[in-house]
Amino acid sequence: MKRVGIIGVGEYLPKRILTNADLEKMVDTSDEWITTRTGIKERHLAAKDEATSDLATKAAKEALKDARVNPKDLDLIIVATITPDMQFPATATFVQANLGAKKAICFDISAACAGFIYGICVAQQFIARDTCRNALVIGAEVLSSITDWKDRNTCVLFGDGAGACVMAEVKSGGILSTYLGSDGTKTDLLNLPAGGSRLPATPKTLKERMHYLKMQGNEVFKIAVTSMVGAGQEALKRAGLKCGDVNWIIPHQANSRIINAMAKRLGFVNAQVYLNIAKCGNMSSASTATALCEAVKEGKIKKGDIVLIDAFGAGLVWGAVIIKW
Ligand code: ACO
Fold it and tell me: Which of 16, 74, 108, 302 has the lowest tally of Cβ within 10 angstroms?
C-alpha cells in the first residue's frame, strides 16, 4: 500500500468576531464564567450570506495553493460537516463547483467534531489503494446556524470556520496510524432533534426551538476526556510510538479543561498542545482542521515532527491519527 501524507493546509475564519463581552449582552453569562469553564474568549461568525461551502472553498483554495495542486487534478473532495449548506446535495459538490474540480468525486462525512479525522482516514484508503491520487479533505462549519442564541448552556461554546488539507502519496513520513471509534447508544447526549426524517419541520418543532443543537454538557465532558485519551493511546500503540515521541498534539477544541485533562492523562505537557480555542471556540469538524493549519503556518510543526490529531464528538464518535510531518 502507498504511503499517504498531507501535502498542503489552509484555513478560513469569517471576519465577524463575537466576544464574551458581546455574549454578556445577549444571555445571562459572564466573560469570567466562559473563560474559566471553557477557555474561550471570542469566536468567528459567518456573515448572513456565507454558507458552509463558502468557508470550505476559501480554506480549500489556500490548501491547494500550499500543496501546489491544481483543482483540476483533484480526484476526491470530502467535506466533514454537521452544518451542510442543504440537507442534500452534499456540501462537497458545491465546493467542487466553486473550485472547478471537474474530475473529483464528492461526498460529505457526518462525524461531528471527529469529522476531519474521519475524512483523513477515508481519503487515506482511497489514495493508498490507488483509487485516487490527490484528495482534498475539509472540516467546515457554520455552527451559528444551529446555535440557540437564547440558550446560555450552548451559545457561548461554538464558532464558525473551515480548515482543509490536501492529501497524496508521499516519499517519506506521512500517516503512521489511525484509529476510529463510535458509540451509537448515546445519541441523546448531543444532537439536533428536528429537521430530519425522525422529526420533520413543523410549526411545533420551530416553536419548541428543536432546530437548534442540544447538548448535555457535563455528561459529554466526561466521555470526551476518556474517549480522546483512549483514541490517542490506541493510535500511539498502532504506530509503535510512546507519548514522548510525539512533538505536537492537535486536539479537538471543545473545552480547554478537556484538553488539559486529556494531555495530562496521556503524559503530554502543555507546550506540545496546539490551541486555538480562545479565539475560535468549538468549531466541530473545523477545529482540528484549523488548528493543524495554524500550527504548520506558524512554523510550530516542522518537517520530521510526529503529530497526533485527536478528537471526539456527537454520535458519539472519536478518532486519532498520527502523522510524521
Ligand atoms: N454562563 C453562566 N453560567 C452558566 C453558563 C453560562 N454560559 N452555562 C451554564 N451555566 C451554569 C449552569 O446553569 C450551572 O448552573 P447551576 O449549577 O446553578 O445549575 C453551572 O453553570 C454549571 O453547569 P455545567 O453544565 O455543569 O457546567 P460545566 O462545568 O460542565 O461546563 C460545558 C459546561 C462548558 C458545556 C462543559 O460541560 C463542556 O465543555 N462539555 C463538553 C462539550 C464537548 O466536548 N462537546 C463535544 C463536541 S461538540 C459537537 O460534537 C458538536
Answer: 302
Instruction: Report the amino acid identity of residue 49.
Output: D
Q: What does the pLDDT look like over 33-72, one tens digit per residue?
A: 999 999 999 999 999 999 999 999 999 999 999 999 999 9
Predicted local distance difference test score (pLDDT) of residue 5: 98
Q: Tell me the C-alpha distance between 41 and 92, whole Å.
A: 31
Let me know if 113 is a catalytic residue: yes
| pLDDT beyond 80 at 185 | yes
Name which CATH class applies to 4-171: alpha beta
Comparing CA positions, the residue from 32, 122, 132 lying closest to residue 80 is: 122
- Reply yes or no on whether 165 is catalytic: no
47 CA to middle of ligand 1, Å?
A: 26
Class (C level, CATH) for 176-324: alpha beta
b or e along 251-262 (b: 16 or more beta carbons within 10 Å of the residue's beta carbon)? Answer: bbbbbbebbbbb
Distances (CA, A) of 310 to 153, 236, 254, 293, 313: 24, 11, 12, 15, 11
pLDDT at position 270 is 52
What are φ and ψ of residue 60, in 5° steps? -65, -45
Residues 6+ apart with CB under 8 A from 299: none
pLDDT band per the 50, 70, 90 thresholds, residue 32? very high
Ligand 1 mutation pick, 218, 228, 259, max ligand atoms within 8 A of CB: 218
pLDDT in tens, 204-259: 999 999 999 999 999 999 899 999 999 999 999 999 998 889 999 999 999 999 99
Mark residue 121 as left, alpha or beta (left: phi above 0; alpha: psi -120 to 50; beta: remaining).
alpha
Quote the CA–CA distance of 67 and 55 in Å, as a whole number.
Answer: 19
C-alpha to C-alpha distance for 144 and 45, rounded to whole angstroms: 7
Portions of the chain given CATH number 3.40.47.10: 4-171, 176-324
106, 113, 121, 165: the catalytic one is 113
Q: Which of 181, 271, 291 is nearest to 229 (CA)?
A: 181
